Amino acid sequence: MTNGALQGVKVLDLTHHISGPYCTKLLADFGAEVVKVERPEGDPARAMPPLINDQPGPDNSLLFLYLNTSKLGVTLNLKSDRGREMVRELARQSDILVENFSPRVMPSLGLDYQSLKELNPSLVQVSISNFGQTGPYRDYKAADIIEYALGGLMYIFGENKREPLIHALHQAQFRAGTNAAGGALMALYHQRRTGEGQHVDVSVQECVASGLRDAVDIYTYTGAVRHRAPEASGDMRRMRKASDGYLLPTPSLAPNLNWPDIVEFFDAPELDDDKFNTPTARLVNTEELGQILDRIFLTKKKAEMFYAAQKRRFIFGMIQSPEEVLVDEQLESRGYFVDIDHPVAGTLKYPGPPYLTSGPPWQARRPAPTLGQHNEDVLGQRLGHSGDDLARMRAAEVI
Amino acid sequence: MPGPLEGVRILEMGQLIAIPWSIKMLADMGAQVIRLESCQRLEVYRRSTLYRDKVDGEYWNRGGLFYEHNRNKLGITLNLADETGRAVLRDLVAISDVFAENFTPRVIKNFQLEYEDLRKIRPDIIMVSSTGYGFTGPWANFGATGPSTEGASGLAFMTGYKDGPPVQPEIPYADYTGGEITVFAIMAALMHRMRTGEGQFIDVSQAQATSSTVPEALMDYAVNGRIAPRIGNGHPSMAPHGCYPCQGADRWITIAAQDDRQWQALCRVLDKQEWLQDGRFASMAGRLQHQDELDRLVGEATKDREPHQLMHQLQAEGVAAGAVLDTKNVLFNEHLKDRKFYQVVDHDPSTEMPPLPYAGQPWKFSATPNVPNKAAPTMGEHNRLILGELLCRTDEELSDLEEQGVIGYAPTTIVEPPIQPPLDEQVRQGRVQRFDLDFQEQIARHFDIN
User: Fold this and answer.
1) What angle do CA B359, B315, A225 make, to 5 degrees?
2) A60, A146, A240: best mutation site toward chain B, by most B Cβ within 10 Å?
3) Nearest CA to CA, how far is B396 from chain A (Å)?
4) C-alpha pair distances (Å), A285 with each of A68, A257, B156, B166, B236
5) Whether A320 and B47 lie within 8 Å, measured CB to CB
6) Cβ of A224 under 8 Å from any chain B Cβ?
7) By three-state DSSP, how is residue A384 classified?
8) Contact A229 B191 (CB under 8 A)
9) Mutating which of A6, A138, A248 best tests the B interface, going by the most B Cβ atoms within 10 A?
10) The pairing of beta strand A356-357 with beta strand B200-205
11) Is A253 close to B145, i.e. CB distance below 8 A?
12) A214–B68: do the CB atoms touch at under 8 Å?
């Protein structure tokens, strides 16, 4: 095992579900020592589908297996005094504490930032929550769909005349996890130079709202409320259906693209018309242009057009299914998918490094922990509790 | 108060979103950012979303997309086709901790700005390249946009209405997922350099970064050979879970009833006690099985309700619910206002633009908050500051550089940006839902702008 970029960084991970675990996974896969604390019955993500062969079991959730690589796992009952005492002991020797409880929980456990700061003034505490630690919606309940709605992304997502839409899967959670990891390291950078810790408050709603391109600026700049794009649109960048899949054509980033090139590439003389040959004309005749483009694309094959366009430096993309992603020649050349062996789940194919680097590389240092796998290592050896102590805590259902 | 990244200097050769957004986040937190531009090749975002759609005069200093992604940066224009311009760039590399760019590898090679080139100038430099598909590999030089990398990642394929085609949001989404991982990568590299003194080359593929956020779909295929169908706003283990019509034009509410208790509360708030007697809906399994019928019923019950009011009523009963905020309502949202998420930024007087609110950061730091905001630079705004104060060029040398066209203050070729159709025509086309003629007054009132 090689050292990572974050070697020597100690992380106390009180997270569950997705956003927090993705944050600490990023830290762990790049070399931080992460101790994941689970409740004795386990992180609820252990039951999240999809499961291996649809079989229930604490080590069968593909999401959980992915989200918890490279971490040490201990179990602690935070409802017990002894469990909370152990958390305080771990916090005392950690650089970063990450948690994603709802904002009332940590204070109710006596683990609010002010108390932890007294124990360890250089602690960076990262709290990820639906709407942040303050404000009128602080205690509101959420799911990805709620975050998309209140973060402004949903309204501009979907068909013009239908209900707004969200991304599949758990995007808001993953984005919060990534932002939290970046924020954690900014605070750690400051801590390493000054010794000062702090509380970093990450809001999932704000993660969504911080990346809306110019959707809000269109209002502040012109007073217009941007809508979901209409069906028939000559926007050259609109997704279009090919004979065997979907293409994402962007002939050029510049609005003044060379129209004769487009006419030639599409082999479509009907586009050679004053109605379409300037950017302004295309905005006026957008519906007619959209219909013509729809007809043209239906005669093309997805991958053929993608490669042909790239050859001419037209910025075309294509929509790939998970099956296609798994054999994508680009990802393969970058060594993206990795096999990881887990004592219960066996050897499975996992998505690997989110980016490549010439520095210390991404590495899944160990598979996701089984429940309480490192209780002895961490609570015994690291915190110095004896075997008898641990046995007593087990009997009292603290671990 | 200095931000946590006080003392870090970043040289940015970015365009559009992926790198500019990431570096803006670092600038907000106190890094000094020098953003490189070209008068010979105008940044596309300087000519998009122009203030009040005015295309005359120095329109390149009124581009909303540029302001959105480049706050708190210093700006310098440099002609890199000119050897003198490249020499200035090398001098800037020598005093920078990080060099960040999002051009294709072909361009970077042509300008001799690869990591090996930069290391000769500054051995501990951290270089970050953000490309659609990665700096290496057979697709390295393929051009990409947010939609195409989201398309390649597997995310877009999974997303869409039930039985419909894939759907993407109206923004280049994967630029942001790629941008967020870039912030992390730069910070991890800075931590490593602090400990070891070593720099590194970071190769971000926006598609790969986005694939990393859909592991369950990729592993479901790898392990189970299965691709889950597109289910719109549905959820595999929760019902009702969706977006329902409300009173008014294009108003909606989202509801996710996470358990029996939330379901019962939902029935009460919607005044539909009879649903509690319906055996089909008695358990989550039953509600999932009959979710189409359930969605229809919930939609019937919400369609005459006001979405914000209904959201507050549902949340008061512990039901996860959220009004679908349009692009105006998100700006004016009471919770985001309380958290000061949108931040008012002053513009240079020459732009004749009033102070305007822009999206803030996804985090709040208790000890070292984000720095006081300064608008994105006008073209060449900090040429003299950067060349004079940082690189110690004399006034005479500066004048020479201006005369030779190495630095400048306006694009060398002025092409009028496309003229947007009038707003009522955009409403007819469906691109715009509605518009306010008094938007300026409404914004000034909400954000206390004088």
Assistant:
1) 35
2) A146
3) 36
4) 52, 17, 28, 26, 42
5) no
6) yes
7) coil
8) no
9) A248
10) antiparallel
11) yes
12) yes
Substitution target in B136, B216, B258, B446 with the highest count of A β-carbons within 10 Å is: B216
pLDDT band at A83 (very low <50, low <70, confident <90, very high): very high
- Chain B contact present for A254, CB below 8 A: yes
Give the pLDDT score at A59: 98
ipTM of model: 0.98
Cβ-proximal residues to A125 (8 Å cutoff; 6+ apart), any chain: A96, A97, A98, A99, A113, A116, A117, A197, A198, A199, A200
pLDDT tens-digit profile of B364-404? Answer: 999 999 999 999 999 999 999 999 999 999 999 999 999 99
- Both structure tokens of B63: 């581009």
Q: How many angstroms away from the CA of A375 is the closest CA of chain B?
A: 28
Q: What is the largest CA-CA distance in chain A?
A: 86
Structure tokens given for B267: 């029935």
* Nearest-CA distance A390 → chain B (Å): 35
Pairwise CB contact (< 8 Å): A143 & B166 = no
Asked if the model's pLDDT at residue A255 lies above 60, the reply is no
At residue A127 the predicted structure's pLDDT band, cuts being 50, 70 and 90, is very high
Tell me which chain A residues have a C-beta less than 8 angstroms from the C-beta of B213.
22, 169, 171, 174-175, 178
Give backbone dihedrals phi and psi of B100, rounded to 5 degrees, phi first.
-120, 135
- The DSSP output letter for A157 is B
With residue A27 as reference, give the H or E element that holds it: helix A19-29
- Among candidate residues B283, B220, B282, B336, the one with its CA nearest the CA of residue A50: B220
What is the pLDDT at residue A61?
98
Beta strands B9-13; B32-37: pairing state: parallel
Contact B69, B35 (CB under 8 A): no
Residue range A111-123, pLDDT digits in tens: 999 999 999 999 9
* Residue contact B233–A166, C-beta within 8 A: yes
Chain A residues touching B333 at Cβ < 8 A: 150
As a whole number of angstroms, the distance between CA B220 and CA B113 comes to: 40
Both tokens of A228, joined, read 């979901």
Q: What's the whole-number average pLDDT of chain A? A: 95
DSSP letter assigned to residue A239: -
pLDDT for residue A253: 66
Q: Are B381 and B395 in contact (CB under 8 A)?
A: no
pTM above 0.90, yes or no: yes
Which residues, in sequence order, are CB contacts of A289 under 8 Å at separation 6+?
Answer: A234, A271, A275, A276, A282
**Residues of chain B with C-beta less than 8 angstroms from the C-beta of A333:** 136-138
Is the pLDDT reported for residue A254 higher than 70?
no
